[in-house]
Amino acid sequence: MAESWVVEDPLDKADALIVLSDDNFYADRATRAAELFREGKAPLVVASGRRLRPSAGVAELMEHDLVERGVPKGKILRFALDGDSTRDEAEALAKLAKTKKWHSAIIVTSNYHTRRARYIFRHVFPQGMETRVASARDGDFDPQNWWEKRKSAKVFMREIVGMAETIWEFRYGAESSTTTQGIVELGGLTPQCLV
Q1: Element counts in the chain: helices (H) and strands (E)
Q2: What is the pTM of this model?
Q3: Is residue 183 over pLDDT 60?
Q4: What is the dihedral of CA 138, 141, 143, 145, to 10 degrees?
Q5: Do 135 and 7 form a contact (C-beta atoms < 8 A)?
Q6: Can you list the domains of the chain with their CATH numbers?
Q7: Residue 70: pLDDT over 50
Q8: CA–CA separation, 121 vs 135, rounded Å?
């Protein structure tokens, strides 16, 4: 079941590789992005990350991970943002893509997150801009044996709930997120309780 949840698009050359925020402890997203950069898939890597303090955030950590894995510092664009969801991140990155006049981008994210990330970016990014998703292995999530570890099961269940909420929001609008929360909380079931 989880194996079919993980997607990987054909990866032609693109204007940029975009590494999504909140990479794991092992820097698996940065590792995958560095591999793709070395393969010549894009001339630039965007280290996207939440701002943790006024002068530092996840983007700086990711830049460090990318440099450590062989991406030249001059080929990395740090992109700090204040959002706390994949949709917020996609909306901020869409503005960057328009400013830079990119025609294509490869979105690098964890394997369990690929299907939802692709759905969000294809809805949020400018019409006519090609977005493809690259799957980064995740040291905490094995799609073949996800049920064997509690952490993997939690990640997978959260992602399923997140996808349902994402589809709901895009179909019925942002104002429905409180309705979605009300439905999910019915009977005391919150997303945390489901996992």
Answers
A1: 8, 6
A2: 0.85
A3: no
A4: 140
A5: yes
A6: 2-144 (3.40.50.620)
A7: yes
A8: 14
Q: Are the CB atoms for 133 and 145 separated by under 8 Å? A: no
- Residue 76 is inside which H or E element, if any? strand 76-81
Residue 166 token pair: 């994402």
pLDDT digits (tens, 9 = 90+) for 116-146: 999 999 999 988 999 999 999 998 888 888 8
Looking up tokens 């440099």 gives: 67
The residue whose two tokens read 């092992």 is 26
Average pLDDT, the chain: 88
Residue with the bigger pLDDT between 172 and 109: it is: 109
Beta-carbon contacts of 188 under 8 Å, excluding residues fewer than 6 positions away, are none
- Of the candidates 136, 139, 109, 138, the one whose C-alpha atom is nearest the C-alpha of residue 121 is 109
